Amino acid sequence: MWIWQQPDWPRGRLEVMPLMGQLAATQAVMSPLVAQGQNLYPRQRLRLEATLLSEEMEASAQLSGVVLGRAALRDALYQALGLESGHQDSPRGPAPGVDVFVDVTLEVVRTAFQPLTRQQVLEWHRRLGPFLPRSSGQPLGAWREARYEAVSGRYGLKRLRYRAPAENPDALDQELDVFWQRLATEEPDVDNSGVLNALQLHAHWQALAPLALGNGLIGRLLLMRWLTRIDALAALQQQGEFVGKVAERWEPEALEQLCWRRQALFSVVLEHQDELRELEQRYLGKPQTSASGHPLPPQLDRALNGEVEDAAPGDMNVWAEWWLLRLRDAGRRTAFHYQRVQRAERLWLEHARTPLNARQRELVLTLLERDDEEGVGRAEYRALVDTSDPTAARDLADLTAKQVLESYGVGRGTRYRLPVFAPQGDSPVRDEP
């Protein structure tokens, strides 16, 4: 039985009290990020956002089966955010379509408090065409016109993982009406700023699957939008500056300054994508027919679905628990970026007059984004900027002489790192599931 065949569709079943401890733990991780973000200078904030969004976008694209380089994303973000060392200075230009991906993502984030229309979602879908699988031949920028089925496995062993509701445009239009009615009252705002609202809306979108392809990518963008609203509301609450609906009180330009990503979630989700597939199977339901529509033989049914045989589709507590844990993991990891962006700002100030070529700037930007203190070896640098070994040696020696980098190790084991990223303590610790 699928989730939409349950009597409580589309809301599912949610018991808030058992989640209170996890909600409090998640809030304890996210609130300091909001407070720290308010203490950043505008340029620091933009640098941090470029780092977080490049991680977020790289992982989200990979979850959709598209591999993008973080350096290309970062270069496009630097240009879009008006930061120096954009891709015009990079030794390589951005990958095709990256600028569009960046523009759509920034639009999703910056307009988080503007009304979300169906036309806007379809426009994002159309523009993100290069990042969607085209083998289905389905049109972009349009709702699906037939039944949606998620099928996995190789030829001859296809497995139906999920069948969405609504088999024709009229039925889908009715389901979309329900979704947009929920948005009107449940999209995070002053009256309901909790993260549970965002997770419930995200679950509804994933179960509805209103597009022929790209539901996951668009769904992650929408979740990013709702989490941005929550963080912006938390920032305002910490300042004690608002009463009433935010969109009615603040000018659009002021709201755009509030709407920026304060953590990167999907890089953590990517590391747990096998768990996510099992979670979706449990939440969305299990098939009782094969991909061809024939009933599954009992033995095959048990073999394919035994791991979720006792699960009840629509259990929002299971869904929320998993996502709250990932949010805490992401928040802890992101806290290190906040420390690093402040140290990075000191580096740029110290070397504001230090001449660097495009290859050297590429290395510095890459090292600023890393979450380790290992730096790079000469061979890694040569591959990063696609240059010769003698040029790489000269670049690294020059950076060391200018005290932009420090070297450690001997011989072929020599590595180069930024002095501001000398070891600063232990690595972040994750919750146990």
UniProtKB/TrEMBL annotation:
Protein name (Swiss-Prot/TrEMBL): DUF4172 domain-containing protein
SUPFAM superfamilies: Fic-like (SSF140931)
Domain Fido: 116-271
InterPro entries: DUF4172, Fido, Fido-like_dom_sf, WH-like_DNA-bd_sf
Highest taxon in the source lineage: Bacteria
Name of a matching Pfam family: DUF4172
